[in-house]
Amino acid sequence: MKPGKSIFFVALLAGTVLLSAFTPGKKKPVKTPEGFVFVPMGTTVIGNDTVSVQAFWMAKTEITNNDYREFLADLKASGDMDAYQKALPDTTQWRDKLAYNEPYVELYFRHPAYSEYPMVNISREQAEMYCVWLTKKMREAYGDYIYDVRLPYREEWVMAARGNNPDAVYPWNGVTLFNEKEHKYACNFRNMGAESIHFNDSTGKIEVGGEYGNYGIAGYIFDASDLTAPVLSYWPNGYGLYNMSGNVAEMVQQSGIVAGGSWRSTGYDVRVESTAPYTGPRPDVGFRPVITYPGKPNQ
Length: 299
Description:
Number of strands: 16
Largest sheet: 4 strands, mixed
Strand content: 15-25%
Low-confidence stretches: 1-27, 208-224
Number of helices: 5
CATH architecture: Alpha-Beta Complex
Shape: globular
Oligomer: single chain
Order of helices and strands: EEEEEEHHHHEHEEEEEEEEE
Mean pLDDT: 82
CATH topology: paralog of FGE (formylglycine-generating enzyme)
Radius of gyration: 19 Å
Structural class: alpha+beta
């Protein structure tokens, strides 16, 4: 085993999930890379399992159109046209027989007005290609203590989303979808008036349910977002992460699911433990990478 290589173990023992990382040969303090936040090691509960997760860095926001365009431009400049073509998003996914979304097909990814909106309509393979490219760029900028940039494990994602509150239902404190201080909704979701309404993937129907009951919306203004919102919209959680609930659902290491819900999701489906099926590019799915944390924080 070479020094500096990060190794992950996931085990289920007596109802406890252990997700850990260690980095042999790396002891020196390191500084959090720009655009990332530090998530300390800790435990939380997912379903009936207690989860222990080692420290890591997570991107402050979802990857933006501008971020991904930089990736494509670099591939093109390097002359790797096969990779460039393979990495192009499928913007036709915006087309919907029930709505006129043609301007999004033509403009959402390329137009500068959408530069700071979340990148969507890419596959898991394309997201992983971006992570490999970002690993190289981060090492050039920060040195060899940067290990592989990658998609987060769901366990990491949930702990980060809770923002240092191990019992949080949403990335903010409380079990409602409102920012009481600002008198506004706290995330970008499908506003149907009650957070207990959710979409049942098995039946294909919208249903009412959920252990947190039915909360009214009288006196609150509706979410102003059309579809997606800029990645720095709303308010950060306790770790400084934006849009962990809603806006776009996010890919995780576990295949076949995405986490956190999106602009298409009802309130019940944007909880930090929410997942949805994922099989390919969609206009409501994006991603944010993490980096394994290698040592003592330089703070």
